[in-house]
Amino acid sequence: MQKLAKSELKGFLFAGIAAIALANSFIFSKLSFAELDFFQFGFWWFLLGTAWNLIYLLIFRRYQLAWSNFYKLLTGPLLIVTVLEAVATALFYYAILKMTNLGVVSFIGNIGPVFVSIMGFIVLKESFNRLQLTGIIIAIGGIFILNYQAYTKISDILIPGSQYVILASFLFAVAAIIARRHFKIIDAGILSLVRALLMLMGFLILIITFSHFSSFSLKTLGYVSIGSFLEVFITIIFAYMSFKYIKAFKTSITISTKGIFALISAWIFLGLKPELRELIGGLLSIVGVVLVSKETKKDV
To answer: Which of 43, 61, 97, 203 falls 20 to 30 Å from 145 in CA-CA distance?
Structure first.
């Protein structure tokens, strides 16, 4: 077996950070829905997300905000990925609002690695060896065990809201494949900013059309602030940075371990102690990711 190259190790590190950030954003988004409806949640979430991205660019990449530089970075692939990400994100958070069990949302969302692996093989001609294939199976199987308590019979899989997560996962996977194919001309910071701006404008229109602004507590403002920083900024930036170093399906599988981190956060913030079955599923997910990171000479 070959050892991981430093660049590939960096890619897994970036994807791991994205997984932790995304898992915790689920918790804070769910807490935010206690006082905010879907439209107001989206507006404040992405208003703050836009602010986080602007602060980052002003401090570290101010030159990119100059119109001549900014315009050059608005490539066709970046705009396509941005729109796909925006629609998928809206669907995903709508599912979180409608579904009571965040574990179920996380599990259904992990169909994403399957989409990415298939499309990566067909579109990007990415290959994976037998050991990696075993890792994919173990990781997905572990995540199934992690959330198995929600499924007592086959009909339970078709719970209300699951269709939104499946569609969102597919759109995220398409975006990941496009980003991987054009990673040299897609800047993660600009993508994150444009995505946040697009979502902000969309939710503002929705509020004006279907809802209204209402007051909410400082505690909820804190939830929205932390959650938006984790999802709109940290997750997007680090996930797309990982594409520069590792294959798309490896990033997707690594981020699928978010269920493990979601369990820990749910225990800390919601007082939900994980069950033995959930811990076993989480361990299998980690084992699967480790196997996915291994390379062998003989490919499938």
So the answer is: 97
Q: Average per-residue pLDDT in the chain?
A: 79
Report if residue 15 sits inside a domain: yes
Segment 87-93 shows an average pLDDT of 89
Residue 299 forms part of a structural domain: no
pTM of the full predicted structure?
0.76
Range of the domain at 155: 6-292
What does the angle CA 9 – CA 124 – CA 132 come to, to the nearest 5 degrees?
50
Residue linked to tokens 């791991």: 16
For residue 225, is it within any domain?
A: yes
**Dist CA 15 CA 259 (whole Å):** 14
Q: Name the H helices within the chain.
A: 6-32, 38-60, 67-73, 76-98, 102-109, 112-123, 130-146, 162-181, 188-210, 218-228, 236-242, 248-255, 258-270, 276-292
Query: Which DSSP letter does residue 80 get?
Result: H
In this structure, are residues 26 and 102 in contact, taking their beta carbons and an 8 Å threshold? yes
Residue 299 has a pLDDT of 42
The answer to whether 264 touches 104, Cβ cutoff 8 Å, is no
Kindly provide the b/e burial profile for residues 97-136, where b requires at least 16 CB atoms within 10 angstroms of the residue's own CB: bebeebbbbbbbbbbbbbbbbebbeeebebebeebbebbb
CA atoms within 13 A on the CB side of 295: 11
The answer to whether position 287 is within a domain reads: yes
